[in-house]
């Protein structure tokens, strides 16, 4: 298996080099040169695997034997040892047409743990094997930062800096990042929004001299290992709904979406042969992805703060990966479209391409009021408390599913992380002990302006300017 850039100007790479590169050196995103297709017979055999065994089966198709099987098995075991359930991502049946895949049983109570606990182990493995200095740089809309820090804190040979938008994440998200006082962790609170933070990250990774000088590695979903690790739970979810539902109904998956990484993992799973009917993109009022699916126009709009802050994103960094496949892997066309986005501020696809988009995805953007409505309704009707991002997924399920379909909605975070929204529904929840403990801890962060030069100065001090 070789990996290539969506823009075609990077020589094919192996798995480890692809992960270490993060953002491709030509500004594109790395993707597999070909996607392995799983036979129906193999899918049937996979149904009885544990989560960890399924993870190993899927990764073995992509890693070119660069990681010995026993080493991979040990990394996977360590990655999920801290999860609060042996299933890792348990499936909860709500009614005959709805299942919820719970992705919040990791150490930071969010779906990002599923990929980032492994990624921390992977970087540690590479650092030791190659005597490689690893300096991780990432941006977060809330959950990625906490999960990434938890995955690498205290590990030798690794330093991590996370940028988050100042006062635009939930209080618990902020505390999960900023109460960590390890020497290898730096939190920069940027006066701006997530898109501002993400642009700084992309600009610094595009500066190849700066990237090489400081041994920069990516933790955001621009890194393909994040995409691949998330693909595993699409298979797991499908395998753990009722066999009758699999056999007699079309199976949809509704995914709270902001940066397009999680939903692209589902697109990859479908291309691999998982028989998903509809991939439903669930967004909030920052609904650039919904507008694209409905109209064919990809155009960032005005930023809005919502009850689901992890999806308060206008520029979805993984969109380019989907564009690559939509354009039949034509790297020249991808480059043209991305240049058009940069110069004109939008992409518009043809009616023929839009028809293909609508065959790949359904989409719905939930309003703030709808989000709160479904939190209250599901708490009362099913005694199931949704976090606001999952509530957007439920709204999309309600809007986009038909009678002959069953939908798996992803619960991407524990509701305790977003008590500000839960309280608006007049619901008093009991916090898990690990989250309650955060409320009394001191915080460690530096507030900086949205100024790349100032951020670079802080990075030079943290990583070392040699």
Automatic annotation (TrEMBL):
Keywords: Amino-acid biosynthesis, Lyase, Pyridoxal phosphate, Threonine biosynthesis. GO terms for biological process: threonine biosynthetic process. It comes from Paenibacillus zeisoli. Belongs to the threonine synthase family. PROSITE patterns: DEHYDRATASE_SER_THR (PS00165). Catalyzes the gamma-elimination of phosphate from L-phosphohomoserine and the beta-addition of water to produce L-threonine. Gene3D superfamilies: 3.40.50.1100, Threonine synthase, N-terminal domain. Its EC number is 4.2.3.1. Coiled coil: none annotated. It catalyses: O-phospho-L-homoserine + H2O = L-threonine + phosphate. The modification N6-(pyridoxal phosphate)lysine is found at residue 112. Residues 95-337 form the Tryptophan synthase beta chain-like PALP domain. This is Threonine synthase. One of its GO terms (molecular function) is threonine synthase activity. It is an enzyme of class 4 (lyase). Pathway: Amino-acid biosynthesis; L-threonine biosynthesis; L-threonine from L-aspartate: step 5/5. Residues 2-80 form the Threonine synthase N-terminal domain. Its cofactor is pyridoxal 5'-phosphate. CDD domains: Thr-synth_2 (cd01560). It comes from the Bacteria.
């Amino acid at each position: 298996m070789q990996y290539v850039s969506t823009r075609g100007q990077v020589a094919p790479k192996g798995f480890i080099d692809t992960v270490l590169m993060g953002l491709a050196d030509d500004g594109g995103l790395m993707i597999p040169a070909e996607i392995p297709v799983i036979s129906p017979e193999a899918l049937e055999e996979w149904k009885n695997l544990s989560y960890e065994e399924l993870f190993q089966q899927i990764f073995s198709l992509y890693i070119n034997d660069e990681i010995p099987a026993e080493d991979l098995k040990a990394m996977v075991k360590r990655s999920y040892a801290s999860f609060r359930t042996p299933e890792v991502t348990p499936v909860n049946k709500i009614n005959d047409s709805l299942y919820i895949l719970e992705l919040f049983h990791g150490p930071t109570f969010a779906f990002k743990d599923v990929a980032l606990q492994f990624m921390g182990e992977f970087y540690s493995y590479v650092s030791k094997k190659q005597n490689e200095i690893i300096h991780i740089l990432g941006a977060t809309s809330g959950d990625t930062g906490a999960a990434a820090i938890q995955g690498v804190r205290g590990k030798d040979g690794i330093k991590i800096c996370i940028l988050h938008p100042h006062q635009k994440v939930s209080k618990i998200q902020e505390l999960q990042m900023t109460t960590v006082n390890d020497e290898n962790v730096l939190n920069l609170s940027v006066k701006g929004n997530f898109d501002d933070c993400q642009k700084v990250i992309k600009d610094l990774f595009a500066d190849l001299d700066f990237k090489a000088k400081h041994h920069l590695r990516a933790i955001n979903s621009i890194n393909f290992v994040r995409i691949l690790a998330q693909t595993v739970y699409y298979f797991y979810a499908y395998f753990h709904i009722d066999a009758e539902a699999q056999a007699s109904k079309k199976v949809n998956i509704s995914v709270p979406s902001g940066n397009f990484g999680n939903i692209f993992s589902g697109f990859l799973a479908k291309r691999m042969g998982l028989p998903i009917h509809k991939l439903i993109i669930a967004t909030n009022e920052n609904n650039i992805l919904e507008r694209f699916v409905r109209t064919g126009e990809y155009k960032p709009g005005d930023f809005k703060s919502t009850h689901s802050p992890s999806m308060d994103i206008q520029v979805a960094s993984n969109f380019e990966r989907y564009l690559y496949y939509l354009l039949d892997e034509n790297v020249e066309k991808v480059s043209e479209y991305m240049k058009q986005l940069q110069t004109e501020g939008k992409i518009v696809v043809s009616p023929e391409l839009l028809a293909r988009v609508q065959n790949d995805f359904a989409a719905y953007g939930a309003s703030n009021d709808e989000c709160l409505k479904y939190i209250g309704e599901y708490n009362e009707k099913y005694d199931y408390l949704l976090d606001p991002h999952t509530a957007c997924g439920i709204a999309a399920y309600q809007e986009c599913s038909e009678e002959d379909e069953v939908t798996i909605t992803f619960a991407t975070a524990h509701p305790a992380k977003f008590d500000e929204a839960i309280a608006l529904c007049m619901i008093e929840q009991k916090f898990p002990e690990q989250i309650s403990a955060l409320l009394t801890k001191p915080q460690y962060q530096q507030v900086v302006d949205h100024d790349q030069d100032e951020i670079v100065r802080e990075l030079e001090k943290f990583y070392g300017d040699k």
